[in-house]
Amino acid sequence: MLRTVLAISALGLCSGVAAQITTYAGVKANGGVQLSGAELNDLMPGAKVASRTQQGSTRTWENKPNGTLNASTDGRGFAGGRNNYASAEGTWKVNESGRWCVNIKWPAAADDWCRIMFKVGNKYYGVSRLEDTALTMEFEISK
C-alpha cells in the first residue's frame, strides 16, 4: 500500500514539474505573481534573457541599460523543425502601462510586442492580455 502511494505521489510530482505553462489561465493556476512597472525597471536593465516561443524557438539577448539589445535565435519553428540561426539588433523598454516591450529586427520578420510579466517559480511568463486563453511567452531572466 505504501509503495502504491509513493508511486502515485512521484508521478504527480514529476508531471507538475514537467508541465509547461502555455496560457494566462496556467499562470494563474500556478500562482503567478504580476510584476509592476517599478519591479520591471529594476529587473530588466542588464538582464540576460532566454525566450522560448510557442513554436519552439529559443532566443537569447541582454537588455543593455541604454535600451538596446543584440539578439540571436536558433529559429526553430520557422524552418520545419530545423535550426535557422539568425542574429539581430533591437530595443527594449518598460512602457507607461508597466509592460515590457521588445522590438527585434530579425532578417525574416520583426518581433514587436509588449507583455504583462508574471513570475512563476524561477521563470517568467509574458502575456499580451489578461484573458485566460491568452498564450504565454516563457522567459528565463538573470543578471
Please give the structural blueprint.
Elements: H1 2-18, H2 24-29, E1 33-34, H3 37-43, E2 48-52, E3 58-62, E4 68-73, E5 86-94, E6 100-104, E7 111-120, E8 123-127, E9 136-142
Antiparallel strand pairs: 1-7, 2-3, 2-9, 3-4, 4-5, 5-6, 6-7, 7-8, 8-9
Query: How would you state the average pLDDT, rounded?
Result: 86
Q: Regarding CATH, which class?
A: Mainly Beta
Overall shape: globular
Strand order of the largest sheet: 2-3-4-5-6-7-8-9
CATH topology: Lipocalin
Count of extended strands? 9
Gap between N and C termini:
47 Å
Measured on Cα atoms, how large is the radius of gyration?
A: 17 Å
Q: What is the percentage of strand-forming residues?
A: 35-45%
Name the structural class.
Answer: alpha+beta
CATH-defined architecture: Beta Barrel
Number of domains: 1
Identify low-pLDDT runs. 1-18
How much helix is in the residues?
10-25%
Q: What is the ordering of alpha helices and beta strands?
A: HHEHEEEEEEEE
Number of helices: 3
Largest β-sheet summary: 8 strands, antiparallel, barrel
Q: What does this entry look like structurally?
A:
The protein is of the alpha+beta class and 143 residues long. It has a single domain, classed as Lipocalin, CATH 2.40.128. The chain has 3 helices and 9 strands. It has helices spanning 2-18, 24-29, 37-43; strands at 33-34, 48-52, 58-62, 68-73, 86-94, 100-104, 111-120, 123-127, 136-142.
